Fold this sequence. Notes:
The chain has helices at about 5-20, 35-40, 50-65, 70, 75-80, 85-115, 125-145, 175-200, 205-230, 260-275, 290-295, 360-370, 380-385, 415-420, 440-460, 505-510, 515-535, and strands at about 240-250, 280-285, 315-325, 330-340, 345-350, 395-400, 400-405, 425-435, 460-465, 470-475, 480-485, 490-495. The chain is of the alpha/beta class. Strands 5-4-3-2-1-12 form a six-stranded mixed beta sheet, covered by helices on one side. A six-stranded mixed beta sheet has the order 6-7-8-9-10-11, covered by helices on one side. Strand 10 and strand 11 form a beta hairpin. The mean pLDDT is about 90. It comes from Candidatus Kaiserbacteria bacterium RIFCSPLOWO2_01_FULL_50_24. InterPro entries: Apolipo_AcylTrfase, C-N_Hydrolase, C-N_Hydrolase_sf. Keywords: Acyltransferase, Cell membrane, Membrane, Transferase, Transmembrane, Transmembrane helix.
Amino acid sequence: MQYRDFLWACVGGILLGIGFVAPTLWWISLFAFAPFLHAILSSPVALFRRVFFLGFAFGYVAYGLSFYPSFLTARSISLAHVVEPWQYILIGVFLWSSTVLAFALSTGLFALIVRALHSSSWLDVPLVASAWPLADWLGAWIFSLANANEGVLYGPHFTLGSFGYLLAADTALVQVSWLGGLFALNAFIALCGAILFHLWATQSFHERLALSILAALMLILWVGGHATLSRMEVGARSPEALTIAAINTQETIRSVLSEKEFDARVARVFELLQSVRDADVILIPEGRGVLEQIRREHGLLSGFLDASFAERADGPVVIDSVHVDEFDGTRRSRIEYRNVGTRRSSFAYKQQLFPYAETVPGVYIRIADALGLRELFAEAFEEARLQSGEPQEPVPVKSSIRASALLCSDGVSPLLYRNQAAKGAQVFFNLSSQAVYEGSYLMDELTARIASARAVESRRWFVLSGNVVSSFAIDPYGRQVATTEKGEDGVLYVEVNPRNDVTPFVRFGEGVLLVPLLIVGALTARRFVDHTKKWW
């Protein structure tokens, strides 16, 4: 292998992932595939193992950067006080690298497909743009299978390191997700890099001209998109508008809380809840269990909230969550929608558990048993024994308006919110807690970008109630219209209009991947026919 090809592959990986560790450099990802394609296509003859290794190196560097904020900035109390600091760091690096490995395997396969089907013509552009979202989808599947246990939600759900989210930093580019969600955003990044590479590599004047025109049209659409969005108002209040109150707290993780400290935290949440006025929906950050506490200590919720709510026969709806131990011995994270006026509750469960923190892969438990370390990690394993719940149905929150609230890492799935929109959800909520990240700027940025993609792909309002991370509201076009101050608790008020849009992604969901699959299939058939003609 020529070392310069390996260097080009690594450079491409750095360009693709740098936006996760330096958020203002997100736009560099649009150039990332050019050096990588040069690495795998520059040599006239290439062995499969060489091409696969270059693709693997590209993916390992890129995903290594993209998963850095979510794995290497987290802090686990249950582990930190049972192992030495160097061991704690080593465990974190191991979990990060094993996650990256699962996704890098798919980029190796991506490199093989591109090398095998490339024709040194303009057809390489749709080839790369089609094969990449399939590779990222496959990587998420490999990750879910590698982390198999009873609590895992199998499928392409864990996309926290997918590069399409980088485009959510730009309000015009994120509109691409309207077509195909995260899959379309991933395809767009690969498309840009493929165009740049082919403009440089092609010897055909006509192809260079055609690609230049395509690039110019894309630039015009981008400028036009920004101009249109800048003139587009957030939306006038409709008769069906909802007033949302999203509570924000700043409770960092602590290994031990004194009784006084615990009481102070509870009192502060109660104080914020009682300060809410004139809201249709009240959101409480993940895992607070406030409704359970109020029932135990105060009785009816209507007598606890502000007196202005007592006269309402319907609403407001308070949405909270708590860990519950079921009758069958399983533990799940449960969402409760409590209608104060009707005194009725609806329940749902968290589906996409965060790996290692909320569910431990069975293979790691078996490794700990084999090494005699089960007792050492007993507390960590107990803390991370949650199981995924059944899919929920949207819940009426005001008259006939239906909404869906998911929990924290549910939002990283490209499918769960889409599924709720397909079932009739008109507004999206997320109850989140990022205490383990202790206010990480990188995770704050990533959370906001993921929320923007979720809002645009379904054209729904997205309101997040956060602990440590700020509470915020995203409009259906991916624009953040309101947020709480960083590091300060309080209540965010926002008015949202319910939407019933059926976008291409809401209609077809994961089925949008049939388009790139058919393109790759057609190019495979074309290559087969060409080889058959040469053989005859």
